[in-house]
Amino acid sequence: MWGQQIIQQVILGLIGLSAGITVAGGLFSFIIELGILSDFADRTHTGEHILLYEDAAALGGILGNIFFVFQISIPGGTWILPLFGILAGMFAGCWAMALAEVLNVFPVFIRRIKISRCIPWAILGMAVGKCVGGLLFFWNRWGGF
């Protein structure tokens, strides 16, 4: 009876691990396909390090999951958290913009409503809106900073 439970737990663990690897592989493939990492390398003129960027993105996802699943506390987390939040927000914003660029959302929208002169202000408005929305979310969730 006890041996059967161990076998069931091992099988469930292997299924969970396999599913996680599959989903993570799909997510990182999606990030790479969108061209976020190659776009960063192109803009910084560091294209020879693209494999390092891809490895760093995968390692970040792996470590983030390990810290989340096992509830690992990071020393100095209260000082590191704002920096992490800023960097994660920048990455998420770049990801959203890359997805929108791939889908040609903005060029079509800009032509339809004829605002080509106001593009910098529209981008600034989206960035400020995302920032204010994130601040309000965390302000309401934890009752202040």
TrEMBL record:
Coiled coil: none annotated. The keyword DNA damage does not apply. Keywords: Membrane, Transmembrane, Transmembrane helix. The chain crosses the membrane at residues 6-32, 52-74, 80-106, 118-139. InterPro entries: SpoVAB (IPR020144). It holds the Pfam family SpoVAB. This is Stage V sporulation protein AB.
